[in-house]
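Sorry, any thoughts here?
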Amino acid sequence: MDPENGYRIVKKLFNQLTEITMVTDPIADYLTRIRNAQMANHRIVEIPASNLKKRITEILYEKGYILKYKFEDNSKQGVIKIALKYDPATKLPAIQSLERISRPGLRTYAKPGEFKRVKNGLGVAIVSTSKGVMTDKEAKAQNVGGEVLCNIY
């Protein structure tokens, strides 16, 4: 067997295996992929898409934590491609901290007046409300509570 053909077979098997893997917490997986890509100084990260992840990506873009994003629809689920943002002078990532708050084993809910400030107001919390996914400040302005998904700083 020639090495190039062997490489193709291994790559095909790897792609099949990665399609099968199940994720019990897709939001934690999303945050971990971004965190890992930043630690490895990657410019772009690809994440399996869902409507919730798309909305979180839009919020990250609106708040200036990522450069740009692209939603690609393929046959099954689709992919989100995110261009990560780094400081031009120090080469540090724009996102200093990504923290999952509400987990499948311990859901965390908050009323509009109960939202905790993230990094003394410098960060943002992403909340899933009855009116959609939004930041903590938007939820407070619309006077709706919900599940606190994550904190970003």
